[in-house]
Specification:
- This protein is of the alpha/beta class and 264 residues long.
- Helices cover 38% and strands 14% of the residues.
- Strands 3-2-1-4-5-7-6 form a 7-stranded mixed beta sheet, sandwiched between helices.
């Protein structure tokens, strides 16, 4: 089996931008486990991991009631993320930007009133978050040959869109950019909404899938939203991996920039 990313230098750092506290593991947890086995330092940066300002907007209160944890729901979720990434031997980094369910417009009105508002285009008052994400990226130490992975924003979740827009508009010489398929949105959409560009499959072992499923279970406040049972987690991630790999379990990444700032 070839290395996960044969075009990335051995032991080069891999950074993954996760809009929320679970997206990276849901979408590419098998690859992260494999990359760590191969000796790559792996960091998972959750962008919208900050605590909300109180009082909560009404829809945010609905979500907190669903997750549990009360006003400390985000602290609970960050702890879940730490447990999940420990299984993958990846380093968690939590930025303090607020999730869309907490954000308000310039008049102080909530931007997210119900579930449908999660999948809207970014509001004009949210444009500043793109710049803030880019500033946070620029403040990180980078070395030539590092790989940055970000969401394709399949499914259209506004936070995923903001992260992708930030990465597409940012430049850092000498690093590689790739985009992962957002699970479970990619599962629901099938192969629709995928970009034109080069893609690369990372083959996964059964151990990679087993550890990924175990890591997803660590998000105890979240996985019941997407899966009916714990057993279904492994079943569905394996089924999607087989579909993406055309019979061989895999996760797929897209490299949309030609030349040195993209896939070599």
């Amino acid at each position: 089996m070839p290395r996960a990313f044969p075009f990335v230098k051995p032991a080069a750092r891999i950074r993954v931008l996760s809009p929320h506290l679970d997206d990276a593991v849901l979408s590419c947890g098998g690859t992260l486990h494999r990359a760590r086995r191969e000796g790559h330092p792996v960091e998972v940066i959750t962008v919208f991991a900050g605590d909300p300002l109180l009082p909560l907007p009404p829809f945010a209160q609905v979500m907190h009631d669903l997750w549990g944890g009360g006003e400390n729901a985000m602290a609970m979720r960050r702890a879940e993320d730490g447990q999940a990434l420990a299984l993958l031997q990846a380093t968690p980094i939590h930025w303090g930007f607020p999730d869309t369910i907490y954000r308000r417009d310039a008049r102080g009105q909530p931007l997210c009133l119900d579930r449908e508002d999660l999948f809207r285009p970014p509001h004009p008052d949210e444009a500043a978050w793109i710049e803030r994400i880019q500033e946070a990226l620029a403040a990180l130490p980078w070395e030539e040959g590092d790989l940055l992975l970000a969401p394709l924003a399949l499914g259209g979740h506004v936070d995923h869109r903001l992260v992708r827009m930030a990465v597409e508009g940012w430049r850092c010489s000498g690093i590689l950019w790739g985009f992962y398929e957002d699970f479970p949105y990619a599962e629901w959409e099938g192969f629709s909404g995928l970009p034109d560009g080069l893609f690369h499959r990372v083959e996964l072992t059964d151990e990679d899938l087993q550890i990924k499923a175990q890591a997803i279970r660590s998000y105890r406040s979240q996985w019941p939203i997407f899966f009916a049972t714990e057993e279904e987690i492994l079943e569905r991630i394996r089924a999607y991996a087989l579909r993406v790999g055309e019979g061989i379990p895999a996760e797929r990444f897209w490299f949309l920039r030609p030349g040195p700032e993209g896939r070599p």
